[in-house]
């Protein structure tokens, strides 16, 4: 997991920003699916 992504996630969790957490999760799963297949 890239460091910039970790920082974004930590900030989203600290702010309890549900929308941002969902968005980051979707981006991450899409990225993983694309790179692993």
Could you explain how this protein is built, in words?
By secondary structure, the chain is mainly α. It has one domain. Helices cover 84% and strands 0% of the residues. The chain contains 2 helices and no strands. It has helices at 3-14, 18-36. α1 packs antiparallel against α2. The protein is flat and about 35 Å long. The mean pLDDT is 87.
Layout of helices and strands:
Blueprint: H1 3-14, H2 18-36
Helix pairs in contact: 1-2
- Domain tally: 1
**What is the number of beta strands?**
0
Q: Helicity level, as a percent range?
A: over 70%
Rg: 10 Å
pLDDT averaged residue by residue: 87
- Computed structural class: mainly alpha
- Give the SSE string: HH
The main pleated sheet reads as: none
Number of helices: 2
Low-confidence stretches: none
Strand content: under 5%
N-C termini distance: 17 Å
- Approximate shape: flat
Protein name: Cortex morphogenetic protein CmpA
Organism: Caldifermentibacillus hisashii
What is the structure about, briefly put?
By secondary structure, the protein is an all-alpha fold. It has helices spanning 3-14, 18-36.
Question: What are the defining features of this structure?
Answer:
CmpA; mainly alpha; flat; 37 residues; Cortex morphogenetic protein CmpA; 2 helices
């Amino acid at each position: 997991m890239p460091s910039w992504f970790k920082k974004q996630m930590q900030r989203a969790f600290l702010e309890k920003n549900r929308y941002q957490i969902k968005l980051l999760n979707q981006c991450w799963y899409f990225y993983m699916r694309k790179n692993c297949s």
